[in-house]
Write a structure and sequence with these properties.
alpha/beta; 9 helices; Rossmann fold
């Protein structure tokens, strides 16, 4: 199997680690590279920064009909991206949770643009020895939505002066057995990604649960991590 992976260096490295035990050829290209692909060039394509580069990325796949393409579809749903770009999707299109720290995990979250491609999805991910869970094609998917909400609530707690960052991180790890505290996780995911996922969720649902904490927004605008 020949695989094309497109994305930033951090996500590409995480995907390579995820697939490291497979004897497959993986070509990696930068997220901003423009390349027009045809069926037969690759057996499967991963576009790990797709929802950050939507206008550029659709053009890469305009000639495809049969090749499965897995794109990051967290900040926008597949249906939303296709509608907004006025693109007629000919190829098998799937969404994955490719936000930083979520790629190299035991279970991959996947959404489907066209249910007719379910068997192809199963066959492709089984060939890649990837366990997966199909989720609804919605902004935020499942895990990113939950984790970003936790980070946002932690920001409100810090902003209100109820506890400091270190205490919040330690309490969450000890109390819930999370691998990271919310502020550690925010830095690993990227404050930019956390903010943009929450902002997209709020715009999509207008649910107050997703309204971004001013402290988080300020760090986003300043391009600052929490633990500098």
């Amino acid at each position: 199997m020949k695989i094309l992976a497109k994305g930033n260096s951090k996500r590409l490295e995480e995907l390579k680690q995820k697939l490291s035990l497979l004897d497959y050829e993986i070509d990696c290209i930068d997220e901003n590279t423009e390349i027009i692909l045809n069926d037969g060039n690759y057996d499967v394509i991963f576009d790990l920064n797709f929802d950050d580069n939507i206008k550029i990325s659709w053009l890469n796949y305009k000639n495809l009909i049969k090749t499965p393409v897995f794109v990051c579809a967290v900040k926008k749903s597949l249906a939303q991206m296709a509608f907004e770009s006025n693109t007629d999707i000919q190829f098998p299109l799937f969404g994955i949770n490719a936000i930083d720290t979520f790629i190299n995990r035991s279970l991959i979250e996947v959404s489907i643009y066209n249910d007719a491609n379910l068997i192809l999805l199963e066959n492709t991910l089984n060939a890649l020895k990837c366990d997966f869970k199909i989720v609804n094609d919605r902004v935020g998917m499942v895990t990113p939505r939950v984790v970003c909400m936790i980070i946002n609530e932690a920001c409100f707690t810090l902003q209100e002066g109820t506890a400091n960052m270190n205490d919040i991180d330690i309490s969450m790890k000890l109390g819930t057995n999370y691998p990271f505290g919310p502020f550690e996780w925010a830095d690993k995911i990227g404050v930019k990604n956390v903010y943009e996922v929450l902002e997209s969720l709020y715009l999509d649902t207008h649910d107050e649960r997703y309204k971004v904490c001013p402290l988080l927004k300020n760090n986003y605008l300043l391009k600052q991590n929490f633990n500098n």
